[in-house]
From TrEMBL:
<feature type="compositionally biased region" description="Gly residues">
    <location>
        <begin position="386"/>
        <end position="403"/>
    </location>
</feature>
<feature type="domain" description="HAMP">
    <location>
        <begin position="188"/>
        <end position="241"/>
    </location>
</feature>
<dbReference type="InterPro" id="IPR036890">
    <property type="entry name" value="HATPase_C_sf"/>
</dbReference>
<dbReference type="Pfam" id="PF00672">
    <property type="entry name" value="HAMP"/>
</dbReference>
<keyword id="KW-1133">Transmembrane helix</keyword>
<keyword id="KW-0597">Phosphoprotein</keyword>
<dbReference type="Pfam" id="PF02518">
    <property type="entry name" value="HATPase_c"/>
</dbReference>
<dbReference type="Pfam" id="PF00512">
    <property type="entry name" value="HisKA"/>
</dbReference>
<feature type="domain" description="Histidine kinase">
    <location>
        <begin position="249"/>
        <end position="489"/>
    </location>
</feature>
<protein>
    <recommendedName>
        <fullName>histidine kinase</fullName>
        <ecNumber>2.7.13.3</ecNumber>
    </recommendedName>
</protein>
<dbReference type="InterPro" id="IPR003594">
    <property type="entry name" value="HATPase_dom"/>
</dbReference>
<dbReference type="InterPro" id="IPR004358">
    <property type="entry name" value="Sig_transdc_His_kin-like_C"/>
</dbReference>
<feature type="transmembrane region" description="Helical">
    <location>
        <begin position="165"/>
        <end position="191"/>
    </location>
</feature>
<keyword id="KW-0812">Transmembrane</keyword>
<dbReference type="InterPro" id="IPR003661">
    <property type="entry name" value="HisK_dim/P_dom"/>
</dbReference>
<dbReference type="InterPro" id="IPR036097">
    <property type="entry name" value="HisK_dim/P_sf"/>
</dbReference>
<keyword id="KW-0808">Transferase</keyword>
Amino acid sequence: MHRRLLVVLVPLAVLLVTALGVPLGVTVAEREVQETYVDRLNDVGRFASLAETALSTGRTEALQQELARYHELYGIPVAVIDTSGTVLLGPAGAYEKAARAEPALPRIVTAALAGARPEPSGKWAPWDDSALVVAEPVGRDSEVVGTVVTISDLSRTRHRILVRWAQLAGLGLLPLIALVTVAWPVSAWVLRPVRELDAASSRISQGDLTIRADAEAGPVELRRLAESFNTMMDAVENAVQRQRAFVSDASHQLRNPLTSLRLAVESLEPHLRATGDGRQVYDVAVDELKAMQRLLNSLQASARMESIRTASPVDLDAVLATRVDRWRALTATAGQTLAVDVPPGLRLLEPSGGLGSILDELISNALRLSDARVVEVTAQVVPGGTDAGHGRPGGADTGPGDGAAPGGVVTIAVRDDGQGIDASERAQALQRFWRSPRHQNVAGTGLGLAICADLVEAAGGELRLEDGLPRPDGSGHGFAAVIALPVVPRASSSDTLAPSPL
């Protein structure tokens, strides 16, 4: 998160430094070229004064030597030109060579012979290689007898400008480096409570109501936010605990009166006539009491299982070893066939309440509700899989350091070739107390699948309903319940994936 903050701050700082540095760089370049121009202007002014005296007296030897010495010393060709454009004094060869590369030279010389001091030629940009041409008339007004012209190479000036620009760029980088150096730890300090709140919210959305945020770190505003968050979670956790306690206590307290009522009703059986409506009413009352007892048992089991929020690694082989024989006995008693096709060595994250209990419920549904002939249990590893409920494996009780593989899930499918459930009813089948109209006369409470789905989802997985095995008569497919749970690598076999406090 603090990286994104730096992505916003650093470009703004770069724009600010650029907005200040570009005008300053242009000013530095203009000053360097202006200083060069003033120096050349002073030089040609002095040479023009000497040339006027030398030409009027005819003593030009000293001026010729000075012009040659100037060219030798500075590498700048300087020449005295008469009104016809002929070089009178100076290094004629060097001057004419430099003049051929300057198309603006004739205009400048013409203006100087007319008695005016022309503007300098050439571009002043450091990346341009044109020379600086400066001319000064010899004589005044109508008495101009020639002009002094210098053609200056600005490579040194451009080099000085580039050096100054590099220095300015280096100075401009200092505040940027200081900004990044200071902003990185400061932003991390400021945003750490936000990251912790985000992580806590994610864990809470998966059902872990014990998580709390650190209210001792970060700015004052974020500490107050963390305190308010913790206060809210205390209230939510207390409310949920009271709700679960109420369900558990109510179920427990109603068991004894309900048992007494059932015994009282059943004690009436010897007093009933063999014929008449009393026997039918008695049977209905006993069935309703049994259904209510099953409902109370389911509610109590639900409250007990939901109070456990810790998921832990488990070997699927160990779970099946304690269950398969019992499943085979149950299916054989019901005249059905059980097929188990599970590869060895699978290790996954077990939901609270136990994976075996969840599989027992799915097998029980296949036996009681589907009227199936074949029940099949299969498992496989899906590389790179993620649970549909949360977009990542691990859910509420896993994280980057917990040992759960972020790139795979184990899918366990319980399929049968029985009646199945219509696609339109599958979403409702995972809701509490929902029962299919076809199963109203079959023992059950409508809580089993819903509780299993909640437990699997709390462990970072998913329980979904699909088409099962093809029916023998070819009329469609049976019922299938598929569990997807995160893979746990063997390296973490001794770890318990419990929530860690922030």
